[in-house]
């Protein structure tokens, strides 16, 4: 399997939940509002023998000509939006779901893909506007949506795993081909340092449960040498744990 990080850049986010671009070469985190977190926004493409998968869709930002940033990054890697076969959504917070639709908020950004979304997460996101931006996904063509619940398999390669912990209906994905395993923990495992330390994040829906899940996933990594994808890590987009 081939992993392609689709970095949209570094941002700070504070209690307002607004993502402010951050230039690592010029900006000073101490000059941002108190409590600001420095994060990467980084969807991933994973190319398997059967699919070109997109894991989450970024912020959905576009340039002055309304070309989406994520489309520009894909083009750099020789991938067209219509080449994406499946979009795997960990959850529907703004920084993960902003690129599901084109800037008109009416048209799918990945016209030939099936979007895999937890059904309860979808229902919650349409009603809970304090944590979600329903305009980012409300108009997605229902024919492109495949709702899942709990844990299970999309194919022999793709497993979805209900986690909760970060949001009430958050899910992770485990991809396996032959002896290779790629694991995407979404915002339950967004950064490398949270895997290596007992860390409770105040922004998680269930901080204790998220911490325990990360510890369990590290134990699992010792068995299958999985490669983790880190959506919010400034330094490590992915990393293979080997025991």
Characterization of this structure:
By secondary structure, the protein is α/β, with parallel strands linked by helices. It has a single domain, classed as Ribonuclease Z/Hydroxyacylglutathione hydrolase-like (Metallo-beta-lactamase, Chain A). The protein contains five helices and 15 strands. It has a six-stranded mixed beta sheet. A six-stranded mixed beta sheet has the order 10-11-12-13-14-15, with no helix packed on it. It is globular and about 45 Å long. It starts with a strand and ends with a strand. The mean pLDDT is 93.
Keywords:
globular, 243 residues, Metallo-beta-lactamase, Chain A, 6-stranded mixed beta sheet, 15 strands, alpha/beta, 5 helices
Short description:
By secondary structure, the protein is of the alpha/beta class. 18% of the residues lie in helices and 26% in strands.
Radius of gyration: 17 Å
Order of helices and strands: EEEEEEHEHEHEEEEEHHEE
- Beta content comes to 25-35%
Structural class: alpha/beta
The percent of residues in helical segments reads 10-25%
Terminal Cα separation, in Å?
Answer: 21 Å
Per CATH, the architecture is 4-Layer Sandwich
Q: What summary fits the major beta sheet?
A: 6 strands, mixed
Overall, the morphology is: globular
**CATH T-level fold name:** Metallo-beta-lactamase, Chain A
Using DSSP, what is the number of strands? Answer: 15
The count of helical stretches stands at 5
Instruction: Please identify which CATH superfamily we are dealing with.
Output: Ribonuclease Z/Hydroxyacylglutathione hydrolase-like
Order of neighbouring strands in the sheet with most strands: 1-5-6-7-8-9
Nearest-integer average pLDDT: 93
| CATH class group | Alpha Beta
Low-confidence stretches: none
Tally of domains: 1
């Amino acid at each position: 399997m081939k992993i392609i990080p689709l970095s949209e850049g570094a941002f700070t986010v504070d209690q307002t939940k607004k993502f402010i671009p951050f230039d690592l070469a010029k900006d000073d985190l101490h000059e941002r509002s108190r409590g600001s977190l420095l994060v990467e926004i980084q969807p991933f493409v994973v190319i398997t023998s059967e699919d070109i998968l997109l894991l989450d869709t970024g912020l959905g930002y576009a340039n002055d000509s309304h070309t989406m940033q994520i489309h520009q990054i894909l083009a750099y890697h020789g991938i067209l939006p219509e080449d994406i076969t499946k979009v795997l959504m960990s959850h529907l917070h703004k920084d993960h779901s902003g690129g599901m639709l084109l800037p008109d908020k009416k048209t799918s950004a990945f016209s030939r893909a099936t979007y895999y979304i937890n059904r309860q997460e979808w229902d919650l996101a349409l009603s809970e506007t304090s944590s979600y931006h329903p305009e980012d996904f409300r108009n997605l063509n229902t024919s492109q949506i495949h709702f899942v619940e709990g844990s299970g398999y999309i194919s022999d390669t793709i497993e979805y795993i209900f986690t909760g912990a970060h949001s009430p209906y958050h899910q992770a994905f485990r991809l396996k081909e032959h002896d290779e395993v790629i694991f995407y923990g979404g915002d339950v495992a967004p950064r490398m340092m949270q895997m290596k330390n007992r860390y409770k994040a105040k922004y998680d829906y269930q901080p204790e449960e998220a911490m325990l899940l990360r510890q369990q996933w590290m134990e699992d990594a010792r068995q299958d040498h999985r490669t983790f994808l880190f959506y919010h890590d400034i330094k490590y987009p992915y990393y293979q744990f080997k025991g």
